[in-house]
Amino acid sequence: MARRAVLLLLAIAVGVLLAGTARAYTNAGPISEEIQNLFWAITLFAVIVAAVVFGILAVFLVRYRESVSPRPTEWIEGNRNLEILWTVIPTIILIVIVIISVPVLVYTDTIPPPDTTVRVVGSQFIWTFYYEDGTTSSPDLWIQAGIVVKLEVTALDVIHSFAVPDLGIKIDAFPGHMNHWWMQADVPGDYLIQCAELCGVGHYGMRGVVHVFPAGSQPKIYGPPPRPLPVTDVQLRESGGNATNPWSIAPRNLTFSIGSRVNLRVWNNNSNPYDFRIDAPPTTISPTNQTPPISNYSYTWLNFTINGASPGPIPYGPADVAARNNGMIGYLTIQSGTIIEVFLDDSGGGPGHSWSVRPDPLVIPKGENVTFWIHNVGSQPHNFTLQGAYRNVKYDPPIAPGNSAFAGPFFFPQDASDTYQCSIPGHAASGMVAPYIAGAGGGARQGGLPVFDMAWITLAVCLPVMFAYLIHHARRREDERPS
Length: 483
Description:
alpha+beta, Immunoglobulin-like
C-alpha cells in the first residue's frame, strides 16, 4: 500500500513538472515576460516546498507503516529546533519572493515614454479605441510591433476590465474615471481582448483582437490598415438629356460625409474638351476642387478630402456656363449629421475672465451623430475637448488663429453634463471653459442599477429581515424554559 502511495506521489510530481511546458498564453511583450518569469520563480519555491513536505510524508509512510512498526510510537511533545526551522525557512522564502516581486511591480507600473496614446472606452458590450489622429476602431485595436502604447482606460456605463492575457494587460475601466497603463507587443500577431469584469448579460461577447503588425507594413504605427479608396465615375455627355436640357452628367447627384476621401474618375465622353469643377470653397474641399481640360474620349482623376460642411447642395460640372445650362450639371451633398459651431475667443470674456468659449452652455442632442465646427476667432492657437463622460470627444491639434476645424462625427448615447474647454495649459483658467449638456444632462445611468444603489437596496431589505429573525429566535418559548 505504501509503495503505491509513493508511486502516486512520484506520478503527481512528474505531472506538475511536465505541466510547466504547457503555457496558457503567449509571452508577446515585456510585461507578460516579466510577469511569467516572476510566476515561475514563485512556482520554483512552491515545488521545492512541496517536494520537501511530500518527501517527508513519503518517508514517514514507509518508515512507520504497520508492518514495520506495529506498536505506536511514543508521544512527542515538541522540538524547538524543528519549530524554529519551519518558521525561519518560510519567512526567508517570503522575503525573497517580496524582493524579486518589487522590481516587477515597479516595471509594470512605470509607463515608459510612449510612442502613441490610445484611449480605451468600454461600454455594454463593446470596446472602442480612439487614436491620436482622431480616428477610431471597434472592437479591435491595431498597433505596430515594438512600440510603447500608453493606454487611457475608462467606461461609459458600468465597470469593465480591459484584459489582454498574451500581453500581460488587465486594467479596470470605471465610468467617469481614467486609468493609465501601457502596452508593448514585440511579436506580430493577433491577441485576444476580453472583458474580465462581469458587466451584464452580454459580458461573454465583449471581446476583440489586438492586431500587431510588423514595422513598416503600414503608413502609421497605429490604426486599422488603410482601405482601398472607392472610385466614383462621373461622365460628361453631350447627350442623354431632354428637350430643355439636351446634355447630361452621370451621376447627377453625389453624397459624401465630412472627412471622406473621394476619388472621382471624370470621363469626357465627347468630341470637345471639357474641364470639371466642384463649386465648393477651398476650406470645404482640399487640395483642389477642379481638373485641367480633359481630352475628348478620355478621363482624368480628381482626388480630394471633404473638410467642411455646406448649407446646401454644391453644383459640379464643367466650368463652361453654356455646358451647364444645357444640362451638364450635378449636385454634391455633404452629410454631416448635426453640425454645432463652437467659437474660441481670446479677445474678451465675462467678468473676471479675459477669454471665452461660445455657446455657453453647449447643448448637444442625444442619440445623434454630431460634428463640431470649431472656429478660432482669437489671436493664439486653441483646441477643443469635452470633460466628464464624453472626454473622448476632442480635437487635440492646435487650431491656428482665424482658422476652423471639424471634429467628429461623434455619437452621444447617454445623458451627461460637465464642461468643455481648450485643453492647452492655462487657457481654461483664463476663461476658455463653459458647461455642456448632452440630452437631459445630469449623467443619467445606463445598463441597470449601479453598485451603490444595489448595495443600499440590499441593506434596506436584508437588515430588517435579519433583525426580525434574531429577535424571533432570541425569545425562549414557555416549553423550553427550565422547570
